[in-house]
Structure to design on (579 residues):
């Protein structure tokens, strides 16, 4: 997920193709570190987002608008004064840096033609938007950087703008075979790190891609490569840079089970096992990717407190279960004490007073055993002592057996809630999980006096053969799907022996094709605790054979006859319904 020099190069090409010679009709500053420029081109109007956010710096074209504050910030007012209605005459990227220069032509108060520069630096927490005159002197910036903040460069009005050379890297577009071998190949690093630490604008992902294309292990020290391997590595590096120089970009997003995990302006062959979605522009990639990642991250953040609660209670329950199991093991000798008491009753009449043990034949095993005795007690009292021990351990065993079953059920319930948190994709999904946690006393439910409408719905997929498949997102939805929504002859799927979603396939009275069974199994595998395994065993049966024990927790079911299949938790080829 690197906003590297190659992504910038692709973006600069797109901007030149789209907004060069366009006029800036509106300037807004919706966030303290973000600008939104509306640009009128020959046949269209587009919006350009320029964000210098420390956590998510971005530049992309969009059709979406954003609300702005009623009073424009000073930086926004300054830009409106100077470049409102200005013409963008040139857009370029210096030396493959993560920097975009916008040269803007405008008329000043006297009607004279003037030139300004708007410079966007995409450098993580050091990102900035800097406004300069035609001579490179800083007029203002969206972030002021003083000497107290940075000893490398001040970004303040009146200072000269320059790009600090802190890493001493080379421009990859200018690299020759000789310079590549003399620089990157002499680094004391693994091959991939040697490439991205030598050349400007290359991220670790791109460096790994170059190694992958050259069939070189990116973790292998570059000094250990043969001369032939180094040359092969250079050729793939040069071919990639040739594509960049010629503007041959293929914007794409790499997805793992629908979740976006990487984006690039070039094809990433190293992710061959994952799904790659092509996009018409790098702006579309950036807008889509970060919107999806933002949504995913937001849900993870909002569920953090719930995860902590579930994790804490789950740890406590597991410790309690282990202790109960240990205590149960201690009751295993209860039957021995019962036998001791019986044998003392049977053979104790021959004991002498003060005897410390009884040697007797155990008629249950037909072996001689030695039974310890208390010499201060009579044989009858020693027998009763062992019977009392037996009775106490028996009662402990019966109580522990019941408690262990309750604890095991609680652990399974909490694990199912934990899985539901992994599956949740919206705040409405989290709302139902909160309701379940409140119902069972894990959290306190806030009473607003109004009954909240349930908006969360099960996932809805369509099989390749056109059958509707539904996946519960949490225990409440599992219960609803299985016992209220599904008909008796519909098919029901669940991962065997682990927490997971109930999957229901509506048959409409038909006999399901094998491919639909396989796809439903894949859904059950993916929406389970076994998601990260290569294969997951799935139980499936007709819904009419699934039963719910009285008093059991939501989503808990039993069944006694079922079929089984093994499925990969891969749902990339299964269509999600549009509802």
């Amino acid at each position: 997920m690197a906003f590297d020099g190659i992504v910038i190069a692709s973006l600069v090409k797109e901007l030149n193709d789209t907004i060069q010679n366009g006029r800036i009709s509106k300037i807004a500053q919706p966030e303290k570190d973000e600008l939104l420029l509306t640009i009128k081109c020959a046949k269209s109007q587009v919006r350009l987002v320029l964000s210098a956010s420390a956590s998510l710096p971005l530049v992309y074209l969009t059709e979406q608008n954003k609300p702005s504050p009623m009073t424009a910030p000073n930086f926004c007012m300054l830009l409106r004064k100077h470049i409102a209605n200005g013409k963008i005459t040139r857009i370029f990227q210096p030396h493959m840096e993560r920097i975009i220069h916008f040269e803007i032509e405008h008329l000043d108060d006297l009607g004279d033609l003037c030139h300004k520069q708007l410079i966007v630096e995409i450098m993580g927490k050091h990102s900035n938007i800097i406004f300069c005159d035609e001579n490179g002197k800083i007029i203002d910036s969206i972030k002021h950087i003083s000497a107290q903040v940075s000893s490398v460069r001040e970004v303040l009005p009146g200072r000269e703008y320059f790009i600090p050379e802190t890493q001493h890297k080379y421009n990859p577009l200018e690299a020759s075979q000789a310079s590549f071998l003399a620089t990157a190949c002499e680094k004391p690093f693994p091959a991939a790190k040697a490439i991205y630490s030598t050349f400007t604008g290359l991220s670790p992902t791109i460096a790994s891609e170059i190694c992958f294309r050259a069939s070189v292990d990116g973790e292998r020290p570059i000094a250990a490569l043969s001369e032939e391997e180094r040359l092969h590595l250079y050729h793939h590096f040069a071919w990639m840079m040739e594509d960049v120089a010629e503007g041959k970009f293929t914007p794409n997003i790499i997805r793992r089970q629908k979740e976006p995990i990487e984006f690039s302006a070039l094809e990433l062959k190293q992710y061959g096992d994952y799904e790659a979605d092509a996009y018409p522009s790098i702006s579309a990639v950036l807008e889509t990717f970060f919107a999806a990642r933002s949504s995913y991250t937001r849900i993870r953040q909002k569920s953090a407190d719930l995860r902590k609660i579930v994790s804490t209670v789950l740890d406590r329950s597991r410790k309690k279960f282990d202790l109960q199991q240990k205590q149960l093991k201690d009751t295993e000798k209860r039957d021995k004490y019962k036998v001791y008491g019986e044998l003392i009753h049977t053979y104790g009449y021959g004991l002498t007073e003060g005897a410390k043990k009884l040697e007797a034949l155990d008629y249950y095993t037909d072996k001689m055993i030695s039974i310890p005795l208390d010499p201060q007690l009579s044989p009858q009292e020693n027998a009763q002592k062992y019977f009392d021990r037996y009775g106490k351990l028996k009662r402990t065993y019966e109580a522990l057996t019941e408690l262990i079953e309750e604890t095991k059920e609680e652990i399974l319930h909490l694990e199912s809630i934990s899985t539901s948190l992994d599956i949740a994709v919206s705040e409405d999904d989290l709302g139902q999980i909160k309701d379940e946690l409140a119902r069972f006393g894990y959290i306190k439910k806030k009473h607003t006096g109004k009954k909240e409408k349930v908006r969360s719905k099960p996932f809805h997929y369509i099989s390749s053969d056109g059958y509707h498949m539904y996946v519960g997102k949490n225990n409440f939805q599992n219960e609803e799907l299985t016992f209220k929504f599904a008909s008796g002859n519909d098919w029901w799927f669940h991962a065997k022996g682990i927490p997971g979603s109930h999957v229901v396939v509506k048959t409409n009275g038909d006999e399901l094709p094998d491919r639909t069974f396989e796809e439903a199994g894949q859904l059950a595998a993916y929406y389970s605790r076994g998601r990260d395994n290569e294969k997951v065993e799935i139980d499936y049966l007709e819904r009419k054979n699934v039963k719910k024990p009285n008093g059991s927790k939501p989503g808990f079911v039993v069944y006694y006859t079922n079929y089984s299949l093994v499925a990969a938790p891969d749902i990339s080829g299964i269509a999600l319904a549009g509802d």
Observations:
- The first strand starts at residue 23 and ends at 31.
- The mean pLDDT is 91.
- DSSP finds 13 helices and 21 strands in the chain.
